[in-house]
Amino acid sequence: ALEPVDVVTGPGNVFVATAKRLVKGVVGIDAEAGPTEIAVLADAAAEPKFVAADLISQAEHDPNAASVLVTDSPELAEAVRTELDVQIPATKHTERVRTALAGAQSAVVLVDSLADGIAVCNAYGAEHLEIHTADANAVAGRVTNAGAIFVGSYSPVSLGDYCSGSNHVLPTAGTSAFSSGLNVTTFMRAIQVIDYGRNALEEVSGHVVALSRAEDLPAHGDAVSIRFAE
Fold this sequence. Notes:
Layout: E1 7-8, H1 14-23, E2 28-29, E3 37-42, H2 48-59, E4 66-71, H3 74-87, H4 94-102, E5 107-110, H5 114-124, E6 128-132, H6 136-140, E7 148-151, H7 157-162, H8 198-214, H9 218-225
Parallel strand pairs: 1-2, 3-4, 3-6, 4-5, 6-7
Helix pairs in contact: 2-3, 2-4, 8-9
């Protein structure tokens, strides 16, 4: 048996996610992590070999993994498809990769402009987002929803897996819109301390009484005004 804990964190398969859901509320959890995701935002300047390899690298995880290419360049999209046809047969877990890339969760999204591509990425909120565009740093600065952002052609997600030092327990399924990757604050709690003196409480007492009456909770106000009754 395990000793009781206050917080359970970390990734895992569907059974781990189910277990975390069952204990949520009894103890804290970081998140219910879903299948892994990669989105690649790329323009005509991107290297198709790199993009294809990175899409494959996440598809290798799980038949349900999501690999999404967002681009404003039909030529780049076609070149990546050609590269996938070359690289998929050469990888070890070919069938798993094929299944993931063929699933409804994976796609090539053609957009009219890079701005539209950024909007798509922000709406998707991918666990891992790679930026393969001109001025990738500036583009990354316009991203508001992502678990982690990998900037430029030489920052593949694999770097985050094994070497860069970034945390790899990241929000999935769009939850990056309201949550962050695992970090030290996950294990910290904030206790609020209220310490008023007599003069300070008297100064705001009228506000408390007025609001308590507006909510029809007069005893709340009485708990303040009784302190100043003659």
